[in-house]
Amino acid sequence: MTLKMAAVLIIIAIFGLGLVNCGFSPNWASLDSRPLPAWYDESKFGIFIHWGAFSVPSYGAPEAAFFWNLWRNHNKAIVDFAKANYPPNFTYADFASQFKAELFNPDEWAEIIEASGARYVVLTSKHHEGFINWGGKYSWNWNAVDTGPHRDLVGDLANSIRKKTKVHFGLYYSLFEWFHPLWLQDKANNFATRDFVTNKMMPEIHELINTFKPEVLWSDGDWEASWKYWNSTGFLAWLYNESPVKDYVVTNDRWGSDARCKHGGFYDCNDKYDPGVLQKHKWENCMTIDRGSWGYRRNSQLSDYLTMDEITQTLAETVSCGGNLLMNIGPTHDGRIMPIFEERLRQMGDWLKVNGEAIYASKPWIHQNDTVTKGVWYTSQKTVNGTAAYAIVLDWPKGDLFLGAPVPTTRTTVTMLGVAKPFKWLPGPKGGITIHIPPMSPYDMPCQWAWVFKLEYLAFH
To answer: What is the pTM of this model?
Structure first.
């Protein structure tokens, strides 16, 4: 055998074993064929953190930045607040020096996030006003190292998350910037020019990936221009083929006004997207604990915050329909996670310690919600006994619980997560199953919200 023939055989063997990755081409058909990294679907629950210079006024943040600079009556409450508390020549940029983050302790944040039961976290690296939370060279003097905190906030939190937890670290990045001259120039030219993308956005987002290696890249600020203007397919081809996170990074769908809910790793579609029915493509419900804001608000009331009943309901609805829940908190400008947010996060973690079996790595069942009883959502898991169905019951039953969706067999077993003893049951008169609920004291209850019944050996599994 000649050396040339041996080389040909080696090449054939390599291709036959699938050791050569031909990569993804910069077009949507190719990019959308990339399998979603399994860790993301299995995680089910993550924490979103909106934090930046917009946290200083803490009034309608972060969208208030737009109104601060324009001083127009788009939102009368914000404009009136600004005029009453700041001089007429005060601009949004003046908040940067006041964003000091002097009480920010990334180890404390990491402990709270891990205690929440979240499997991933997404921090705002840059919001629409353009201030970046690290010391990037493409935002000179408009970043957290050159002014304000004088520290690398992204890097500090990334290090604590990775050293002290098993939580996946991700970053939010706004493609556009409300006030950047190059963006305003391109917009005025009806996006026939691409100076902002070429000279600002693209080099900066590459810097972000290469420096911090996020496992989630949560893009936003895309909606005023098409994906062609953003060169989204070119960037994603680099991200999936050559970047240091190419094998495990997860992306969303906000890559252009004509890309949302059509292209990307998972779909966010719109804020607080919650379709209520099973989706064909992996999706995420990004939502807020504070009903009125993504950032911290000093003027919020207790009634503005979701209760744990509402949060567990949202989680059940989302996971049952194949989605992930990304729940947002807004820290203060000095770097504190306020008690109301910390309480909700720790309560969520306590609930997941009992009921995580029905959430993490679960799959949608043949029914998403019950066919008869309202307030019941289903998930499923493969077990050694086949497929177990989990009925997430939002309200404690008044008497026995009837479920119309499950079809029992003589072997069916019913347990409640967190309770050792099985529950008695009877087949329904026209199908379904009636679960006998014995009297239980508050001390015997496994949790305070949304109880989960595990059903095994059903007819359809």
So the answer is: 0.93
